[in-house]
Write a structure and sequence with these properties.
Elements: E1 2-7, E2 11-16, H1 20-30, E3 34-39, H2 43-46, E4 53-56, H3 65-78, E5 85-90, H4 92-104, E6 110-115, H5 118-124, E7 129-134, E8 137-144, E9 149-152, H6 162-178, H7 181-189, H8 193-197, H9 200-217, H10 232-241, H11 248-267, H12 271-283, H13 295-303, E10 315-320, E11 323-327, H14 332-342
Parallel strand pairs: 2-9, 3-4, 3-5, 5-6, 6-9
Antiparallel strand pairs: 1-2, 7-8, 10-11
Length: 344
């Protein structure tokens, strides 16, 4: 078992290798009332004997104001109070939603994250960002509200589909590119998804250590934390334009290549790095291109990204492995030129 401390508005622990049922039993014993939020697809797997469960739809479709309002209404029905807690069990969309419900109910109640996907384990459940999507964009409505603990039961990965595991690897590869080259070495040596699965524990721990370090130094994304969005500006735009039919990690995979091409153009990044990352992503069946969905639409969505300032395009790039660089006021023509490199 590995424990990683995170400093935010309060200190909490990410426990890797815990058993989720016993951990949940401990939480239930510590609070008089606990609401569990979980996606419908986990109903049979969880088999929870628990009085208060709110099942959501699956994936990004749950992250909206309608679902949130239903959770609020249910919280009111069960009279969940300030000394009670919420538990989110599921992928990143579920932990985002459960955390935001906890942040907004009674101006903030305790909550716990039980991530069940690789992407949620290494990214969404750690860091205290909670939120929902809206027609304006992804995660534009939210709050910083850290969990009381994150329980990472790696056995959830045993039943995770290859597609979902690969989608999580995109987030892991992102961490390797911005901070931990050893991650890239491990994945370069893994010839298949099956081989990568055998390194899950180390990949998860390395990724969480990086995120915990960054978040502890910059909880509310003053600047440093923005490096965690490497590949996400274009990736989020692709998710929204494709109406969330892609997994988050699949959209990020294309976004990573966009960010690397942009880094070649503006930071003189060695193109060999991009070629190696393309090979790695394709090995794990992740996309590296997108069909042409209209540059103007991508531009509009990227200009509304959380990192943009006065509609100026801002990206995170790298000029070498593990050395992120902030790209301010990226010329639109440069951004468009890179877009033309990744469309098919």
């Amino acid at each position: 078992m590995v424990e990683i401390e995170v400093e935010s508005e309060h200190k909490y622990t990410v426990i890797i290798g815990a058993e989720w049922r016993s951990s949940l039993a401990g939480i239930k014993a510590s609070y008089s009332k606990v609401l569990i939020v979980a996606p419908e697809e986990l109903r049979s797997q969880l088999e929870l004997s628990h009085p208060y469960i709110f099942y959501t739809t699956n994936g990004e479709s749950q992250k909206n104001s309608l679902t949130l309002e239903k959770i609020w209404n249910y919280l009111g029905e069960i009279q969940l109070g300030r000394s009670d807690a919420i538990v989110g069990i599921g992928g990143g969309a579920t932990t985002d939603l459960a955390g935001f419900a906890a942040a907004t109910w009674l101006r903030g109640v305790a909550w716990f994250a039980f991530p069940t996907t690789l992407s949620a384990m290494v990214d969404a459940s750690v860091g205290g960002k909670t939120g929902i999507n809206s027609p304006a964009g992804k995660n534009l409505i939210g709050a910083f509200h850290s969990p009381s603990a994150v329980i990472v039961d790696l056995t959830f990965l045993d039943s995770l589909s290859d597609r979902d595991f690969s989608a999580g690897l995109a987030e892991v590869i992102k961490v390797g590119l911005i901070a931990d080259p050893e991650i890239l070495e491990l994945l370069t040596e893994a010839p298949t998804i099956f081989a990568a699965r055998s390194s899950s524990a180390e990949l998860v721990a390395r990724s969480i250590r990086v995120k915990a370090d960054v978040v502890s130094r910059d909880f509310k994304e003053g600047e440093l934390r923005e490096i965690l969005n490497f590949g996400h500006t274009f990736g989020h735009a692709l998710e929204k334009i494709r109406a969330y039919e892609l997994r988050h990690g699949e959209a990020v995979s294309v976004g990573l290549i966009y960010a690397l091409y942009l880094s070649e153009a503006l930071l003189s990044l060695d193109p060999a790095i991009t070629r190696n990352v393309i090979t790695m992503l394709e090995k794990f069946t992740l996309p590296v291109q997108t069909k042409d969905l209209g540059w103007e639409e991508f531009l509009r969505v990227m200009q509304s990204d959380k990192k943009s300032r006065a509609q100026q395009l801002r990206f995170i790039g790298i000029d070498r492995i593990a050395h992120p660089v902030w790209l301010e006021s990226v010329p639109i023509e440069a951004a468009r030129s890179v877009y033309e490199r990744i469309i098919v």
